[in-house]
Each structure stands twice: as C-alpha cells, then as structure tokens.
Amino acid sequence: MVGCGTSAFMAQAFGALREVVGHGESDAFPASEMPAGRSYDTVLAISRSGTTTEVLRLLQEAEVPTVAITAVPGSPIARAADDAVVLGFADERSIVQTRFATSTLALLRAHLGQDITQAIADAEMALRADLPVEPRDFDHYVFLGTGWTVGLAHEAALKMREASGSFTESYPAMEYRHGPISVAGRRSVVWAMSQVDGGLLDDVSATGATVVAGRLDPMAELILVQRTAVALAELRGLDPDHPRHLTRSVMLS
C-alpha cells in the first residue's frame, strides 16, 4: 500500500488492519520510500488527485499487478494502474483532504468484511457534538494510536498542522513516554484516537496536559480533530482550505 501525505497514512491504517483480520502480510510505505526488489502480489496506490508524481512513477515502474484508488476518473494514476476504483463523490475543492481520506478507509474497511455501521453513526454524532477541547486554550497537539490507528494519529496531526498551523506530534501510544512526553504541559492536548493504556494517560495528565480519550470509532474521532482544526484556523484568521505553501497535488518536473 502506497500514497503520499494523507494517502500514505490511510495506506498505513489499511495495511495494519489487513494483517490483523488475517488477509496476509501487508506493508505500507510513502510512495517515495517503497523498497525495490521485494516480491509483492499487488501494489495498492491511493491518490485523491490521481496526479501525484511519486505515486505515478511507482506505478509506471511496478512489475506486479497494481490497483489505484482515486477521486478523478481518467487521471494519470487511474490510467497507469491495471485497475482503478474511482470515488468521484469524495473529491473536494479544499487543498486539505478530509472526505476522500475517510471515504477511502471506509471502503477498505468494508472490503475487509468489517461492519462500519457504528462508524457511520459515530461520524454523524461527531458532526454535531461539542468539541472536546476549547481550541483557543492550546497551541500544542499530540495524537496517539495503536495498531491501525497509528496511521490515523499521524493523519490527525497532519490535519491540525495543515489547517491551523499548530505545533503537532503523533506517535504509537506506548512510545510517547520514551522522550516526547518531556514537552507536554498545560498548553498541550494529548488526544488518543483509540483506547490506549490507562496508566499512560495518567502519566500524561500529571504533566498538566489535557487528555482526550477517544470514545468514538477512530474514523469518527478523526472528524472531531478535523473540526477542531477548522475552528482553530478560523480563530487565527487562517483559511483552513488553503494553507500556505501547499497545493492540491505535488507534481514534480
């Protein structure tokens, strides 16, 4: 499984899930870092725009069957892959990915046979619920995950960083004690995207940081993060759909 940015994190989440449910060895890489010479059955490439250069180059050089998930029919990546799944309904005008990412992961979870009924209900709740923190009170956000939600933690940190310009971090939960906790304090939010060790959260609370223990399906928890990022961006006078220095797709010469 490969992608860039948000798509790489969705690939990471899917790879971890696929192994857990018994579908075989599954590796995920940023497209630019996939090792050469490994014998895989298939390469799955994720790209909203269908134009990301690193993903396109990988597909053009692949020696095994390839599948692409994209939002744009007829895009270079859709044409380069042997098969393409086009989620046109999930495309978005914003530079920052939200709908395409969760739609792709919902598709892949359903493909693995998971019942996502509760995830859908939780997502509807996440759109209406009060935010778990007051964004103006914090300028440091940390996201933690375990297993497949490590990828979602990385994505949550990226969303906060892109949309609101915040100082964000993300880690596998049990790694947080191994150094990163040293900068936690009263202006920090440490947000667990799924259930994590209770003792860890106690240690985080002792730093003065505010702990958010995710209780919704992790994809719905991601929606709460997205809403928090938008709220903080608006408080700072930023446009969360058009962060500075970013474009919809990275296309290299």
Gap between N and C termini: 24 Å
> Which consecutive residue ranges, at least 5 long each, have pLDDT under 50?
none
| Outline type | globular
Q: Averaged pLDDT, please?
A: 95
Précis, in short:
The protein is α/β, with parallel strands linked by helices and 253 residues long.
Describe the protein in words.
It is built from 8 helices and 9 strands. With 253 residues, the protein is α/β, with parallel strands linked by helices. The strands form 3 sheets. A 4-stranded parallel beta sheet has the order 7-6-8-9, sandwiched between helices. It has a 3-stranded parallel beta sheet with strand order 3-4-5. Helix 1 (6-20) packs parallel to helix 4 (99-111). The chain is globular, with a radius of gyration of 18 Å.
Looking at this protein, list some descriptive labels:
single chain; 253 residues; alpha/beta; four-stranded parallel beta sheet; three-stranded parallel beta sheet; 8 helices
